[in-house]
Amino acid sequence: MLHLTNAALGFATIWWTPPTPDFTLQSTNSLSPTNRVHAPSGWTNPVVVPATLPTKFYRLFQP
């Protein structure tokens, strides 16, 4: 399960449970068409990301 909370001004914290290292955080700017890329954090859990434009969509990926 992916969780999201406020962090410092202009940032959000993303984390997932259970904290398994086999999952990689991915992001995309659009849901159609999708062009998902590994987030710079990779499998780091939790991760702090900018909460600014452009909008980002996140998911967990297990290779």
Number of helices: 0
Characterize the quaternary organization of these chains.
single chain
Question: Percent of residues in beta strands?
Answer: 35-45%
Largest sheet: 3 strands, antiparallel
On the 0-100 scale, what is the average pLDDT? 86
How many E-type strands? Answer: 6
Radius of gyration: 11 Å
Major beta sheet, strand line-up: 1-2-5
Q: Give the distance, in angstroms, between the N- and C-terminal Cα atoms.
A: 17 Å
Q: What is the total number of structural domains?
A: 1
Q: Regions with pLDDT < 50 over 5+ consecutive residues?
A: none
Query: Helix amount, in percent?
Result: under 10%
Listing every helix as H and every strand as E from the N terminus to the C terminus, the arrangement reads EEEEEE
Give a brief rundown of this model.
This protein is mainly beta and 63 residues long.
Structure description:
The protein is mainly β and 63 residues long. The chain has one domain (2-61). Helix content is 0%, strand content 43%. Strand 3 and strand 4 (37-38) form a beta hairpin. The radius of gyration is 11 Å and the shape is flat. The mean pLDDT is 86.
Task: Note the main attributes of this structure.
about 60 residues, mainly beta, about 0% helix, flat
Please give the structural blueprint.
Elements: E1 2-6, E2 11-16, E3 24-28, E4 37-38, E5 47-50, E6 57-61
Antiparallel strand pairs: 1-2, 2-5, 3-4, 3-6
